[in-house]
Amino acid sequence: MYLSLLFRMENKKLKLVLFTLTTIILAVSFLLGAEFFYFKGNNTKSTEIEVKKGESLKEIARNLSEERVINNPFLFSLYVKLLRKDKDLKSGFYVFLSRMTISQVAEKIISGETEKERITFPEGWASEKMAEKLEKEKICKSSEFEKVVRDNPEEILSDYPQLTSLLQNEKIDSLEGFLFPDTYYLEKRENADDVVKKMVSNFSRKISGNILKDIKTQKRSFYDILKIASLLEKEVRSYDDKRVVSGILWKRLDNGIALQVDATISYITGKKTTKFYAEDLQTDSPYNTYRYKGLPPTPICNPGIDSIKAALYPRSSEYWYYLSTPEGKTIFSRTFQEHKKAKFKYLK
């Protein structure tokens, strides 16, 4: 009887202990759950934080706490460790909205949901101008971008068999012309090499379908087509006029006549005008299509798809000359005398 009573007492104690432990566990779980999923940081506005490559979980938690994105760095670290994701935190720039929970902050860094900048490069921009914009938007340094564009372009192009098959054995001195003008979503402090590759990859995708097929059947060099396209992009606005001017340029090229494209003088001198002095036209540069016959060594900008198509599909005409008015209208002439009259009328 005594043993039975003792057993019942011990059983009650055990139940009490288990009940107490269960209550504590539930309470702790509730509190942790509230901390993880309900209670929010004290930042009252969006906060940008860089998670650097190689940073430890402890360092990341401390930085988040200092910026008031989270209230408790220990609980943040605990949450990440409970998920077994402490090795999966991704570097980059993050924007945390005001008053996010620990779970929301952690999931953002685990998933690599970094802040991306919407960068638009208009058609006709040269790599130098693109580089300036990238530095202004804190994507990468302009010098690093230009170095990638200038150094070893053939190595980057070799990753795109479709392009190398078109270029064959041509010497490519720069990626100018291959940086497709478009809207890109780029991370702050992104590697310049990666930015360039995204643009070249986009260019490669655009050169497809009938365009790719027709380039292969042309007797023209693809690089020459790209150079002509860059001239058209800087000289002419409408697609129809671009095709006519394309016909003029190819015709002058085939007949050994200097192209005399004003945009190449602007490219050399940096002057944004159609009125050049005699010394401008005599500038000693392989890009000077007034002084030297043939095409420039590289494209002078990065053309859009319409200019590439116009270079690929020129329209034949009786014209040998053209000019663009300040309003963007293209005036065509059959003879040099007609051209001089047009210049006097529209560009005086």
Report what the structure shows.
This protein is mainly α. It has 3 domains: 47-114, Endolytic murein transglycosylase (Dna Ligase, domain 1); 118-206, no CATH class; 221-346, no CATH class. It has helices at residues 2-37, 57-66, 73-82, 102-111, 127-136, 142-150, 153-157, 161-167, 192-206, 209-217, 222-235, 239-254, 262-269, 278-281, 305-312, 336-346; strands at residues 47-51, 92-96, 116-120, 183-187, 321-324, 330-333. The strands form 3 sheets. A two-stranded antiparallel sheet has the order 1-2. It has a two-stranded antiparallel sheet with strand order 3-4. α2 packs across α3 (73-82) and α11 packs across α15 (305-312). The longest helix is centred in the first third of the chain and has 36 residues, at 2-37. The N and C termini lie far apart (123 Å).
- Rg for CA atoms: 32 Å
Helix content, binned percent: 40-55%
The general outline is elongated
Put simply, the count of helices is 16
Task: Give the strand tally.
Answer: 6
Element order: H for helix, E for strand: HEHHEHEHHHHEHHHHHHHEEH
Structural class: mainly alpha
Summarize the biggest pleated sheet.
2 strands, antiparallel
Mean pLDDT level: 87
